[in-house]
């Protein structure tokens, strides 16, 4: 597998600061980061072999010392896609599955089944050119395989469906997550999370807990904008009742699809309220 770690994050941030595109600054030394490194080596007069050693960091330090880590470069598109979001594929990831049921409610409703039901409904109505499901049945799919599908498919975005649980039954509300680590955040992931957050919480009439930067595995291992959505808490009695409604998966899927259409259309009025 690709090398990963804080040293890769440092390499990616330095390359990014100098205008070489390593993709997401996620600590994953993937093919895109390797291409950016070779491009830098060629421009710096080094052997463009893609090997990272002390000499590479020494030259990077020479060029990047004045800007490294002082700020994150702003996204020229303001967190939106410059092209049509729906012109390519979108990956929909139903978390858990198989032996990994996630949280199981007392009346038999499992998080894995609920995630899949929402994902399948969403796959039917998303206006994307293609919708790819990381699983289409009650099967166990590793995080690595989910990320590989997203990274190798040429998809533009991944939406991961989760549901929350907490030892305190009073815990409630809708939350969404995008990739953020060591001062770097995914601009597009963050903006998409805002739209999903507003749409789903308003549709379900749940507390809008907000959108948060995290380094969860599905966010960290994918090299495209990604959002993890938790529409509600299955441990909260009122919200469990909502989730138990047979129309719930359709309701959530429609809210997600509507949010992505508004995001793709750059409807800033929707998130300004």
What would you call the shape? elongated
Distinct helical segment count: 10
Sketch the major β-sheet. 7 strands, mixed
What's the Cα radius of gyration? 20 Å
Structural class: alpha/beta
Describe the 3D structure.
The protein is an alpha/beta fold and 273 residues long. The model has no long low-confidence stretch (mean pLDDT 90). The longest helix has 18 residues, at 187-204. Helix 1 (6-17) crosses helix 3 (54-64), helix 4 crosses helix 9 (248-264) and helix 6 packs across helix 9. Helix content is 41%, strand content 14%. Strands 1, 2, 3, 4, 5, 6 and 7 form a seven-stranded mixed beta sheet that branches.
SSE map:
Elements: H1 6-17, H2 31-43, H3 54-64, E1 89-94, H4 111-125, E2 130-133, H5 143-152, E3 157-161, E4 174-181, E5 184-185, H6 187-204, E6 208-214, H7 217-220, E7 226-230, H8 237-244, H9 248-264, H10 268-272
Parallel strand pairs: 1-2, 1-3, 3-7, 4-6
Antiparallel strand pairs: 4-5, 4-7
């Amino acid at each position: 597998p690709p090398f990963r770690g804080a040293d890769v994050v440092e390499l990616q941030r330095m390359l990014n600061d100098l205008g070489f595109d390593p993709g997401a600054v996620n600590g994953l030394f993937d093919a895109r980061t390797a291409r950016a490194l070779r491009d830098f080596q060629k421009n710096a007069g080094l052997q463009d072999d893609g090997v990272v050693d002390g000499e590479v960091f020494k030259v990077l330090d020479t060029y990047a010392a004045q800007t490294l880590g002082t700020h994150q470069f702003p996204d020229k598109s303001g967190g939106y896609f410059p092209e049509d979001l729906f012109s390519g594929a979108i990956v929909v990831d139903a978390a858990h599955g198989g032996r990994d049921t996630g949280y199981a409610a007392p009346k038999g409703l499992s998080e894995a089944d609920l995630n899949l039901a929402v994902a399948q409904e969403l796959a039917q109505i998303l206006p994307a050119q293609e919708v790819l499901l990381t699983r289409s049945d009650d099967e166990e799919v590793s995080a690595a395989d989910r990320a590989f599908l997203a990274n190798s498919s040429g998809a533009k975005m991944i939406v991961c469906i989760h549901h929350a649980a907490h030892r305190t039954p009073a815990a409630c509300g809708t939350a969404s997550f995008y990739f953020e680590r060591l001062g770097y955040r995914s601009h597009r992931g963050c903006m998409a999370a805002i739209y999903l957050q507003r749409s789903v919480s308003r549709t379900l009439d749940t507390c809008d807990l907000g959108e948060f930067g995290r380094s969860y595995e599905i966010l960290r291992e994918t090299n495209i904008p990604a959002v993890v959505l938790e529409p509600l808490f299955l441990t909260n009695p009122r919200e469990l009742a909502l989730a138990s409604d047979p129309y719930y998966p359709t309701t959530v899927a429609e809210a997600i699809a509507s949010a992505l259409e508004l995001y793709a259309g750059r409807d800033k009025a929707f998130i300004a309220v």
